Amino acid sequence: MMQQQKAKLTFLGTGTSSGIPMIACDCEVCRSADPRDKRLRAAALVEYGGLTVAIDAGPDFRAQMLRAGVHHLDAILLTHNHKDHTAGLDDIRAFNLAERHPVNIYCEAYVEDTLRREYGYAFAEQKYPGAPEWHVHRIDGTRPFTVHSNANEEVLSWERGFGYHHLPPQSDADATIEVVPIQGWHHREKKLSVLGYRFGNIAYLTDIKMLDSEAEFDKLKGVEYVTLGCVKIGDHHSHPSLQETLDFFARVGAKESYITHLSHQLPCHEEFAAMLPEHVHPAFDGLVIG
Amino acid sequence: MMQQQKAKLTFLGTGTSSGIPMIACDCEVCRSADPRDKRLRAAALVEYGGLTVAIDAGPDFRAQMLRAGVHHLDAILLTHNHKDHTAGLDDIRAFNLAERHPVNIYCEAYVEDTLRREYGYAFAEQKYPGAPEWHVHRIDGTRPFTVHSNANEEVLSWERGFGYHHLPPQSDADATIEVVPIQGWHHREKKLSVLGYRFGNIAYLTDIKMLDSEAEFDKLKGVEYVTLGCVKIGDHHSHPSLQETLDFFARVGAKESYITHLSHQLPCHEEFAAMLPEHVHPAFDGLVIG
Question: Per-10-residue mean pLDDT for chain A, 290 residues long?
C-alpha cells in the first residue's frame, strides 16, 4: 500500500458569498485595514500527488488564479451549486488556451444539472469559438473517486475563425489522486447536498451545516488539518454556529483546524483569532497549510 | 424642453472577457507594470440626471463597486447576455441590504430569458432567504426608455429566519432619466443583439461588430463622448477591427472617442495610445469622462 502523501492547501478565498468588505458596507470589519480582513469568496488550491486542483470557482476565480500565480490546473472540484462557488467557471478558458486541454470538473450530478442550465453555451453542440472546454465527471458522494491529471486529456487545437479542434491525447502519463468526498448538508433539513473533500492529511469542508451521518466522521479520522465554513457566532439556518463549528473540530481532533467562509458578522480577524481555542484559527486569503 | 444634461461616465473595467492580465499568460501586455494595463471586465458607471447606473455586471462587479466606492445604485443596464457582462449579478444582494430596495435591471427580452435560466433561484416563487431581489424591465431597442430611481421602489424588510418582506414604496420621488438604446450586433451575420446606451452627451458601446442600420448613427448625432469595444487590430468575427473602430469614431464625430474591451492582443496601453489618431484613446480602468 502506498504511503499516505502529504497535501498542501492554499486558501484562495475565505469569505462568505458577499466577500469582505461587502459592497456599500461601512461596518468595522468591512472598514478594517488588516489585509487578513480582505476576503474573496471561499475557494482553495490543493497540491497533492503531483496534481494541482482547485476547490470551487466562484466569481473571484480569475483574481484568485492570478494572485496565486497558477499556471497549471488539473481539475476543479465543486462543493455545491451556489453562485459564490461556481460563477467564475467561464474563466477556465484561459487554461484551455494556455494548456491546450479541457479542464476536468468533478461534482455531484445535481451540480452538473445546474452547470448545464447556467452555462448552456459551454455544453452546446455548436459552441461559439473560444467557449469553455471542460469535462464534467460526476461524483458518487458515498465512495472515494479518482482525479486524473490533464496531461492525458484530449488536446485542443485552435483554428482561427473556427474554434477548437479536439485531438486525441498525446501523453500516456496518467497521474491520479484519490479523493474522499465527505457528505454534508447546507441546511439542517438536508435541503442541499454539499461535499467536503479529503486529500490524504487535509480535509476541506465549507457550507456544511451538518454531516450526512455519523459514518462521515469515520472518513475524517486521522486528518492533520481540517476546515469548516462558519459565517456568524450565533445560529444560522444554513451554516454552523461557532459552537457547532468548534464541536465539529473537537470531534475530528485534527492537529490544526481552520474556519473559512467568514462574514462581516464575525469580529475582525485578530479579535476573532483571540477568541478561539488553541489549534483553532480563522483562515485568511493566501494562508498555506500542510 | 429640458436642457440636455451632462453625464459623467467612469470606466469600471476596460478588458475583454478574460481581462488583462489573462490567467497563466506571460505575454508582454499581461506582464506590463503599467496600472493602465490591468483591465477588469468591461463595465461602466454613469451618473446622469441625479441617477447612478451601472452598465453591465460581469464577474468583477463586486471588485468594481468596491474600487469605485459605490454606495448607491439605481439600476443596471445590460448590453447583452454574455457571462463577462452578467456573471456578477448575484452581488447586487449587497445593495438590497444596504438600500433596502430591489435593483432595477434593464435589458432586452432575450437577455431576461438568459437571466431566468442562469439565475433561476432569483426568479423562484419560493426564494431562499437573501437571494437577489431585482426587477427586470424589458427594453424595446427601437425607442428611448425611462430609467427610474430606486427611491420609489418597493421596500425590502428583513425578517430573520424568513428573508425579505416586500413593503409598498415609501417615497413619491420619481427621479427619471431617458436613455437612448443604440441597436447593434455582436457578429457581422447579426447573430446576437447588443445594445449601446446614450445618456445625453455620452454614448457607451461595446461588443458591437456593426450597428443594426444607418438609422442608429442618427441616434449618436451630437454626442461629445463615445466608446466602442475593440479586442485586436486585425479582423475578428465578433468585434470590430481597429480600422472599423476608427471608421466608426470618425463617422460619429464626437469630441473624444474611447476604445474599451481591450485584449492582450492589442499593444500595451502607452504604445497603443501613441498609435491612435488625435481624440481617440484607449480607455483604462478608473478613467472618468464627461
Answer: 76 98 98 98 97 98 98 97 98 96 97 98 90 97 95 90 89 87 92 96 97 97 98 93 98 98 98 98 98
In sequence order, the β-bridge partners of residue A100 are none
Whether residue B61 lies within 8 A of chain A, CB to CB, comes out as yes
Q: What angle do CA A10, A14, A15 make, to 5 degrees?
A: 160
C-alpha cell at A76: 476543479
Q: What ipTM was estimated for this complex?
A: 0.96
The tally of CA atoms less than 13 A away on the side-chain side of residue A35 is 3
CA distances, B16 to each of A156, B20, B59, B184 (Å):
22, 8, 12, 18
Asked whether residue B101 is assigned to any structural domain, the reply reads yes
Residue B190 contacts A where some CB pair is shorter than 8 Å: no
**Chain A contact for B255 (CB, 8 A cutoff):** no
* Structural domain includes residue A287: no
Q: CATH number of the domain at B217, please.
A: 3.60.15.10
Q: Which domain holds residue B157?
A: 8-284
- Counting the structural domains of chain B, the total is 1
Bridge-based pairing state of the strands A193-199 and A202-204: antiparallel
Please give the residue of chain B at the shortest CA–CA distance from A27.
B98
Instruction: Tally the C-alpha atoms within 13 A of residue B213's C-alpha that lie toward its C-beta.
Output: 3
Contact of B19 with chain A, judged by CB distance below 8 Å, is answered with yes
B174 in any annotated domain: yes
A224 in a structural domain: yes
Would you say A135 and A107 are in contact if contact means Cβ atoms under 8 Å apart?
A: no
Using the structure block, give the residue that is written with the C-alpha cell 437573501: B130
Residues B57-100 pLDDT 10s:
999 999 999 999 999 999 999 999 999 999 999 999 999 999 99
Contact A98 B72 (CB under 8 A): no
Nearest CA of chain B to the CA of A21: how many Å?
8
* Spacing of C-alpha B25 from chain mean position: 26
Residue ranges of alpha helices (H) inside B73-195 are: 83-86, 93-99, 109-118, 120-123
Using CA atoms, how far apart are residues B279 and B253, in angstroms rounded to an integer?
10
Longest dimension (CA), chain A: 59
Which of B127, B165, B161 is closest to A236 using CA atoms?
A: B161
